[in-house]
Amino acid sequence: MLIGVPKEIKNHEYRVGLTPESVAELVHDGQSVIIETQAGAGIGSSDEAYKKAGAEIVSSAAEIFERAEMIIKVKEPQPAERAMLREGQILYTYLHLAPDPEQTKDLIKSKAVCIAYETVTDDSGHLPLLKPMSQVAGRLAIQVGAKALQKDGGGRGVLLGGVPGVAPAKVVIIGGGDVGFNAAQMAVGLGADVTILERSNDRMEDLSNYFGVKAKVVRSTPVVLANLLTQADMVVGAVLIPGAAAPKLVTRDMLPTMLDGSVLVDVAIDQGGCFETSKATTHADPTYIIDGVVHYCVANMPGAVSRTSTYALNAATLVHAKRIAKLGWKAALKADPHLLNGLNVCHGQLTYAAVGEALDIDYVEAASCL
Description:
Blueprint lengths: L1 E4 L14 H9 L3 E5 L10 H7 L2 E3 L2 H7 L2 E3 L6 H4 L7 E4 L7 H10 L2 E4 L14 H19 L20 E5 L3 H12 L3 E6 L2 H11 L3 E5 L2 H8 L4 E4 L25 E4 L20 E4 L2 E4 L9 H22 L1 H7 L1 H4 L2 E4 L2 E2 L2 H7 L11
Parallel strand pairs: 1-2, 1-4, 2-3, 4-5, 5-6, 7-8, 7-10, 8-9, 10-11, 11-13
Antiparallel strand pairs: 6-14, 12-13, 14-15
């Protein structure tokens, strides 16, 4: 199979779909790989490194989309990229369709076969291709939130860990999954006063056993959240409903109850955000302020630490890329029901229920495309 990797064009997106090491594995398996020139510059991988791995370097994204049987990316295709997709071409990347009706319509129109990293599952019901970026985003949320909390970042001028004689910042993390757990690890490590809100009894027990007295684990209810918001210096939104739009847990009416200069970090922004006042921002202009509350809502947070993110992502995604390339998409999806769960759009039809329900678009069962 001829696999193509274009350079990412989303604002300040420095990751790349394949590392040179991943290319070498695919080439060893008998696949052919074409890479757009400078696609790996953001992770410090030169065209020469890709050539040594066995890839062909091409001069434009247009050539990638024209020639490749499978496109491997990181972020959702931008409008110019969606216009180049063709019928039957495989697209393997993050999509996050639920809050993005325009992308969804364009992918349906393209009749491409679109497999989304974020809805591929495993035997435990987890999302293994989303997990590495959840880990990165959770840890990064505290890093960027701490910067936003500084006075020069628009915040209250509070040091996350405090100092002797001065209390540390109060950090509230909504959701105890991969994002929330990693955010809590970082916040605890920096000495913050951390509260994790969670609804699953089993997860609350796991979190409590792990953190002990270093973090408070509390059952999430609207009343509890509303009370904690009035005291919080930083709130991290870390909720996820696989493939679906994120619930709006912090409403506009709650903002005036929050401390002036407090910070909201919405890690769920790829799925539409879990704060009612969230709107996607970029690394170039990451924050805005509403009612005195700083909002950080960058939609591709892990792109800021592109090398770490790309290598972590490839460790998870390559196994499926190799299987699709070896067997073809139909046989690969037939052989693996977890990979089949990643199929979001196929030959002009939406194939993921949560997206159809979020956007009020008709959908079919993914298996019907096989």
